[in-house]
Design goal:
single chain; alpha+beta; Alpha-Beta Plaits; four-stranded antiparallel β-sheet; globular
């Protein structure tokens, strides 16, 4: 089965640097096949048998052993990633006029009510939930008015991993 692992919090702001080549090698050493990475933010595409929770534990333990720090990892099936990407309105873009992101949710916060707990001003941002993710779109001119940046300091932020919609769409369309 094809999976995507999101390695949370690596290569951000020059901290917790991890080379994608080393990640591919590590995943290969775990017996995973067809391993590839997409950009430097910790998106790993691979195939294996097994259950997501077992795969997650194995990856997190191996990353800790290899790099010396915890790397929270969210594992989604290819089908889940496609389901989420298909729910994003086609006219949402990540460009000069709009900012659109997907927050992939860890199981403990994968609930529709999670949207209501986010510190955003909904009059400036279109924010939606679908099983597995929350996604949003905001005009660039309203990013600060929307309080989108406050998500980073919020208690829920540690239970999600955010990617822009270009990445979300790429991962859903990737048929390697």
């Amino acid at each position: 089965m094809k999976y995507i692992a999101f390695l949370r919090g690596i290569n951000v702001g020059g901290n917790r640097k991890v080379e994608m080549k080393k990640i591919r090698e590590l995943f290969g050493s775990l017996g995973y096949t067809k391993v590839s990475t997409y950009i430097n933010s910790g998106n790993v595409i691979f195939e294996t048998k097994g259950k997501k929770q077992e795969i997650r534990k194995k990856i997190e333990a191996s990353l800790k052993k290899e790099f010396g720090f915890d790397v929270l990892t969210l594992v989604k099936t290819e089908r889940e990633i496609m389901f989420i990407a298909d729910a994003i309105p086609k006219n949402w873009k990540n460009n000069k006029e709009q900012r659109a992101d997907v927050a992939y949710l860890f199981p403990e916060v994968d609930l529709k009510k999670t949207i209501n707990d986010l510190p955003v001003k909904k009059e400036f941002i279109d924010v939606r939930y679908i099983k597995g993710a929350i996604f949003w779109n905001v005009k660039r001119e309203n990013v600060y008015k929307s309080h989108l940046v406050k998500i980073i300091g919020h208690k829920l932020y540690k239970s999600m991993t955010v990617r822009n919609i270009n990445t979300a769409r790429y991962l859903a369309e990737n048929k390697e």
